[in-house]
Amino acid sequence: QQQVKQSPQSLIVQKGGISIINCAYENTAFDYFPWYQQFPGKGPALLIAIRPDVSEKKEGRFTISFNKSAKQFSLHIMDSQPGDSATYFCAASADVYSGGGADGLTFGKGTHLIIQP
Amino acid sequence: KAGVTQTPRYLIKTRGQQVTLSCSPISGHRSVSWYQQTPGQGLQFLFEYFSETQRNKGNFPGRFSGRQFSNSRSEMNVSTLELGDSALYLCASSLSPETYNSPLHFGNGTRLTVT
Questions:
Q1: Which of the two ends of chain B, N or C, has the fewest CB atoms closer than 10 A to its terminal CB?
Q2: Where are the beta strands (DSSP E) in A8-71?
Q3: What are the distances in angstroms from CA B4 to CA B13, B23, B33, B60, B78?
Q4: B39 Cβ neighbours under 8 A, 6+ residues apart
Q5: Residue A98 above 70 pLDDT?
Q6: Looking at CA atoms only, how far is residue A12 from chain B in angstroms?
Q7: In what order do the strands lie in the sheet with A72-77?
Q8: Which residue of A has its CA nearest to B98?
Q9: Which residues of B touch A97 (CB under 8 A)?
Q10: How far apart are CA B61 and CA B58, in angstroms?
């Protein structure tokens, strides 16, 4: 059972454009929603994270929007750059303890983002 | 500060063998988690250790096991390897098991190929 659904699977954006990746979750017990960025040959690196008590969080060019009632959250990358080309994963966990509840962090399937110069 | 170190980077094993992967967390980090990454299933949680105790375990068969030492270093073991165990195994560390204030830092993984 996939508890976090991520879309699109792949995305091509022109340099300077806005990249938008969406995730939907099913488990209402989730209360921590991070986004990870992964380059080929590297492990995932935390980009930005949000808790459900806020609807938006911004760090530099990266913004998470969170809709608790719809059980959806999204990542917006403003002024996308070729260096942003990577695979992005959304994730969720059921409590504030690292590794989540019994299932640790539940990841989406990933979005392969390509920023064209 | 050195990141999470995983050794070896690549492994090739034969079906039926067993394998041990090693992880050294970031200095000062006491929590270590393991994830399996495959093209089909994505990233899946294996287990988490804190202060040498397994706190959580994912939905994997008993062939997958791990342990954590007093210096927070961790190992995971897979016995009786199957072709489907071919994957990138990622270790992640954090200061404590508190996720939001203590995010996970991943290593670059061990690529295991089972033939």
A1: N
A2: 10-14, 19-25, 33-38, 45-50, 56-59, 62-67
A3: 24, 7, 11, 23, 21
A4: none
A5: no
A6: 20
A7: A4-7, A19-25, A72-77, A62-67, A56-59
A8: A97
A9: 55, 97-99
A10: 9
A42 and B33 in contact by Cβ < 8 A?
A: no
Among all chains, which residue has been given the structure tokens 């959806």?
A72
- Give chain A's radius of gyration (CA, Å): 14
Each residue's pLDDT tens digit, B11-62: 999 999 999 999 999 999 999 999 999 998 999 999 999 999 998 889 999 9
A70 touches chain B (CB under 8 A): no
Tokens of A98: 């690292």
Distance (Å, rounded) from C-alpha B35 to C-alpha B48?
Answer: 9
B-interface mutation test, from A53, A93, A98, most B Cβ less than 10 A away: A98
Stretch B99-106: mean pLDDT? 81
Ranges of beta strands (E only) in B51-86 are: 53-57, 64-68, 74-78
CB contact under 8 A, B31 and A98: yes
